[in-house]
Design a protein that fits this description.
The complex is a heterodimer of chains A (491) and B (581). Chain A has four helices and 35 strands. Chain A has 491 residues and is mainly beta. Helix content of chain A is 9%, strand content 43%. Chain B has 30 helices and no strands. Chain B is mostly helical and 581 residues long. Chain B starts with a helix and ends with a helix. Chain B is elongated and about 100 Å long. At the A-B interface, loops of A face helix 19 and helix 21 of B.
């Protein structure tokens, strides 16, 4: 037996010795015959090998909480006063590496009124598929019309470090929209700062440009946009957006388009290509995105309704057109990939194609373009090679699940889910296997999981990135001082 | 024998405390209530860390700590009095020469800050920052060796600027001003060095906190609107430095000399008189009145609102909306609303505006009506519009209430958890937590049980243009919601829409009125006659008195009586509102 092969066992023993020695171990524990009431819920989830420690809290009054994470290759034990378990980052990562493509169990015990209780163990699978290490999101109160203290943050999902990419203090408390990568590349991304003097802030290999993506004939500036694989093209929708406020307590806010068209911008020559087929006045076109090979353009389309009160029947289908990367022109044939069916939860939003081009992930809701406020909204995934639809039952919840994006290896998705309280969105991750199986979702781990209990911000439009983006809030503030680059129209 | 000068000094300081207490406790109390509602002070480590980590954070934190007591205007007023007295005594302690006659000079910074506090958007952090700076200067003054004192000052100035913000510059300024310089060049050198330290600290703060430099230099949390620089705290700082400088050359007047008391008296008159005039000029009693209406609506003191309106009619939409709400809550809206000034439907349910004040008062009306989603929205929007980005205890409580009543327990829980860490709202939050755990307990609370039943349950889109339809739908859902019916009627009357009034009037038949309310009788009589019908054939039970008065009104109109006569003769009637407003 070589010394090298003994290493895992040595580590095992070392870990046990180091940690158990310091911990108050349960004794004479009563079996609770139930899973521990922990938050976040990690039972049966699949996590990437490089994820930050899955700290959790026991939702119970206890004096001491004890957790034992045990797999075939090692063990970590932790005892803590109160109800919060925080794993040491180094031990955690070593432990996950040892359990790559295996599963482990966490047994939680709690001391209540001097008596130890041991809960049934929870099981966690560790996937050897790494997740992109960075996650960006907008922190925003789930507001109606007035906003304040908006920030766009970048979080390393391998640990708990967070960085501000755009800060309300630096941009005069303006509205800002979410940070979007081009294929997860940290040197190609954009965000919007709205309001007077605002524009799209384009991260062009670390150099920030301020773009005024609007020409005279467009109904508005750009709203939803995505990069082409080469980065030369940006496809975007221009939308006239109207808010509506529900009287029913189970609903809150409705946001819908009265006009919307799709355009393609050439970032190399500052032109906007108008394709009439994507700017039909009788059709609302929105949420455009490219296929990873750059040959197709997917978007959502609905028949225009003359009355705002008809919004309940405003249902969007998923469409596709050919795209010519050398001219920016689209084909003449529109394929309907997923057709909306009146009266059914089948209105499509936010199409995003997997990096290998096989799957297309989208949100379905009863109607409209703002699934984040629709409790019924769920994600679905269509296999573009077979047309088979995966309803992703293990990933979805009875609250809004939407705003998804892919990890660059196509094995992970992240999305915003309001499953915990119905109001505040949080980033949830799922593993997608090679055969398209989607695992149970787990929330972005936090150093102190109590953060989610008191935090009054939504984590909006989470996006995964391959590296740390090449700018920060001060750079965005400086870019805001630039004159916006203008674009000419190319019909 | 008691030292006479000590008595005089103590008397003047006590006069400051008593004056400030009376002013803020009795003349200006609702400004304190107003201040309290736009913050939520939590006794948690994370809240303390979040506030204290910012430039000026300690002063801000302590300012917020004091502001939480403003929920009781009496207690808040005493605290303000004590803080102002603390600044005055610190200033006196920092004067190099301290003859009795100069004692009134030490009141100048406190008076400037008193004037600052008259502004509803001034924050307590500025007062605390000046107090802390002067107290630290007082402590540094105890160092006898001038060189050591200078070095200590240079080392601790960045700390003071970090803890107190830009107003912390009072600390080095006062110390420099009261030092005895032997050579001009050394004074210049130390002033330049201090300026470099101050500038360096500001630059570091800007860098660390990613804040615009202008905001760091002007102080980030002395005024509710971050882009506005509050002038009076800076007057207090400059006055402190000037008094410390001038005090070096003050000479005592011989004991027993009449001049001693004459100068003292003159200074008391000049400084006291200027202070009185300044406070008078800086205070805004119109806003105080408006805040009173909002405070009483918030705390459900309906009779106080009606009593106040009987003495002086409110005329701003926000205060009129509070009055109409109070009339509705006391069962007087239908009879007596036109006894008071009415400014159209804006005085019933004001249009939403994107600010942090008027939506709060309007949300009270929506809440009591049972439009819980709308009350929640107006409250949420008001909180988001608070210019200095603070959260609000008042808003948290209302958001917790609406979330609890609409069944969004997990959201209510978030707000309740925060409120449990406060002083003012803790008891309510603990009770609300029990209600979350045991929802049946809500039935024992008349307000919540009624709102649970009466709240809007159907779905429609909120529309200010179709308020009558919204109120009608609300009443349809809960036919015992008398307030919804009376607001619907009032909406029609205020908009002078008599056909709609007539159409909606019968739906309230089951509400158990023992008479047709006066305003309704007048409206029905008016509508009937405007349709060309004789009053004798009116199909509703309108009193003879109203019919006779209506006939007289018609006669006066036909006689083309002047407007002033009509307004006077028919004051309080719907007809006066309908024709002359």
């Amino acid at each position: 037996m070589s010394l090298r092969s003994l290493c895992p066992y040595g580590l095992y023993v070392l870990t046990v010795l180091c940690l158990v020695a310091c911990a108050e171990k349960p004794h004479d524990a009563e079996r609770a015959e139930m899973l521990p009431p922990i938050y976040p819920d990690y039972e049966g989830v699949t996590v990437p090998v490089n994820i930050a420690p899955l700290n959790f809290l026991l939702r119970d009054d206890c004096e001491v909480v004890y957790a034992e994470a045990k797999g075939t290759a090692g063990i970590i034990t932790i005892a803590a006063r109160g109800n919060e378990i925080e794993f040491g980052p180094k031990q955690w990562h070593r432990f996950l590496e040892m359990h790559q493509d295996k599963s482990f169990r966490i047994t939680v015990s709690a001391k209540k009124d001097g008596q130890w209780i041991e809960y049934d163990p929870i099981s966690i699978n560790v996937s050897g598929d790494s997740i992109d290490p960075y996650l960006t999101y907008r922190l925003i109160e789930p507001d109606y019309e007035i906003f304040s203290r908006l920030q766009i943050k970048e979080r390393c999902v391998e640990n708990f470090t967070e960085r501000t990419l755009c800060d309300y203090n630096m941009v005069g408390n303006r509205c800002m929209n979410c940070h979007t990568y081009g294929a997860g590349r940290p040197d190609r991304s954009f965000l919007y700062v709205r309001g007077e003097g605002g524009g799209m802030i384009l991260n062009d290999a670390g150099q920030l440009r301020k773009l005024g993506l609007k020409t005279d004939n467009m109904v508005s500036g750009s709203v939803y946009a995505q990069f082409s694989p080469s980065g030369r093209w940006l496809v975007f929708s221009a939308n006239v957006i109207i808010p509506g406020f529900h009287a029913n307590p189970s609903k809150r806010l409705e946001v819908f388009d009265t006009k919307s068209d799709v355009y393609v911008a050439d970032l190399a020559n500052n032109t906007i290509v108008a394709n009439p087929i994507l700017a039909d006045s009788l059709t609302l076109e929105t949420f455009p995105t490219f296929s990873p090979d750059g040959k197709s353009l997917y978007y959502c389309a609905a028949q225009w309704k003359p009355k705002a009160s008809a919004i309940d029947s405003l249902q969007y289908s998923l469409c596709r057109v050919d795209f010519n990367e050398s001219t920016g022109r689209v084909g003449k044939e529109i394929d309907t990939i997923v057709a909306a069916r009146l009266g059914e939860k089948s209105s499509v939003c936010h199409p995003r194609v997997s990096p290998d081009g096989r799957y297309l992930l989208y949100t379905v809701a009863d109607y409209g373009t703002f699934p984040i406020w629709h409790r019924e909204s769920d994600q679905q995934m269509i296999d573009l090679t077979t047309g088979e639809i995966n309803e992703m039952a293990r990933a979805n919840s009875d609250q809004s699940d939407t705003y998804h994006s892919w990890s660059s290896n196509g094995r992970w998705i992240v999305f915003a889910s309001k499953r915990d309280d119905g109001l505040y969105g949080k980033p949830y991750f799922c593993h997608v296997s090679e055969t398209g199986e989607v695992s149970k979702a787990f929330v972005l781990p936090q150093k102190h999981p109590t953060l989610y209990e008191t935090n009054l911000k939504s984590f909006n439009a989470p996006e995964l990135g391959r590296g740390q983006v090449l700018f920060d809030a001060a750079d965005v503030a400086a870019a805001m001082e630039l004159p916006a680059e203008t674009f000419s129209r190319e019909d | 024998m008691i030292n006479q000068s000590k008595i005089i000094k103590a008397g003047l300081t006590v006069a400051l405390i008593v004056g400030a207490t009376i002013f803020f406790g009795h003349v200006y109390p609702h400004h304190l209530h107003y201040q309290e509602q736009f913050q939520i002070f939590m006794f948690t480590g994370s809240y303390a860390a979040e506030v204290i980590m910012t430039p000026g954070g300690l002063a801000d934190y302590l300012g917020r700590f004091f502001t939480q007591f403003f929920f009781s205007s009496g207690l808040g007023a005493i605290l303000i009095g004590l803080l102002l007295a603390g600044i005055q005594l610190a200033m006196w302690g920092l004067m190099a020469e301290r003859p009795l006659w100069a004692y009134p000079l030490s009141f100048i910074p406190s008076i400037a800050l008193w004037m600052h506090l008259c502004d509803e958007n001034s924050l307590m952090g500025a007062t605390v920052a000046v107090l802390l700076s002067l107290l630290c200067a007082l402590a540094a003054r105890q160092i006898k060796n001038p060189m050591v004192q200078l070095v200590v000052m240079l080392i601790t100035t960045p700390l003071m600027l970090w803890l107190c913000g830009a107003l912390g510059v009072a600390y080095p300024l006062v110390l420099l001003a009261r030092m005895k310089w032997h050579r001009a060049w050394s004074a210049i050198a130390w002033v330049c060095l201090t300026a470099c330290v101050v500038a360096g600290t500001f630059a570091a703060q800007r860098y660390v906190h990613a804040l615009p430099l202008g905001r760091v230099v002007s102080g980030i949390h002395y005024y509710r609107f971050p882009q506005i620089i509050a002038a009076w705290p800076w007057v207090a700082v400059l006055a402190s430095a000037a008094i410390a400088l001038v005090s070096r050359w003050l000479k005592p007047v011989a004991k027993g000399s009449k001049m001693r008391y004459a100068v003292l008296g003159a200074l008391i008159v000049v400084i006291g008189g200027s202070g009185f005039a300044g406070v008078n000029r800086c205070s805004d009693m119109g806003k105080e009145e408006l805040m009173a209406y909002d405070y009483w609506a918030r705390t459900k003191q309906w009779s106080k609102i009606v009593d106040k309106a009987l003495k002086k009619n409110p005329d701003v939409p926000m205060s009129v909306a509070c009055l109409n709400l109070a009339l509705a809550k006391t069962g007087q809206l239908a009879d007596y609303m036109f006894l008071f000034y009415q400014n159209g439907s804006q005085g019933l349910l004001p249009t939403f505006v994107r600010d942090f004040t008027s939506p709060l008062a309007t949300s009270e009306a929506y809440y009591h009506l049972g439009f819980l989603n709308t009350a929640q929205r107006f409250t949420f929007e008001a909180q988001e519009a608070i210019p200095d980005f603070q959260k609000s205890g008042r808003c948290y409580k209302r958001l917790a209430e609406t979330s609890m009543l609409t069944g969004n327990k997990a959201v209510a829980q978030k707000y309740i958890k925060s409120l449990q860490h406060t002083l003012v709202y803790r008891n309510w939050a603990n009770w609300a937590q029990e209600m979350l755990d045991n929802p049946d307990g809500l039935k024992d609370n008349p307000e919540y049980s009624w709102l649970s039943a009466a709240q809007s349950r159907g779905d429609f889109y909120y529309s200010e243009d179709e308020m009558d339809s919204m109120l009608g739908l609300l009443f349809q859902q809960s036919s015992t919601n008398k307030m919804a019916y009376e607001y619907l009627m009032a909406w029609c009357l205020l908009n002078k829409n008599l056909p709609r009034f007539e159409q909606c009037y019968p739906i309230g038949a089951g509400l158990g009125y023992d008479h047709i309310p006066m305003a309704y009788q007048e409206a029905l009589a008016l509508h009937w006659t405007r349709l060309g019908n004789p009053l004798e054939t009116i199909p509703w039970v309108v009193s003879d008195q109203v019919c006779q008065r209506m006939a007289q009104f018609i006669a006066d109109v036909q006689a083309q009586r002047p407007r002033s006569y009509m307004l006077n003769a028919y004051r309080g009637s719907y007809w006066a509102y309908y024709f002359f407003k």
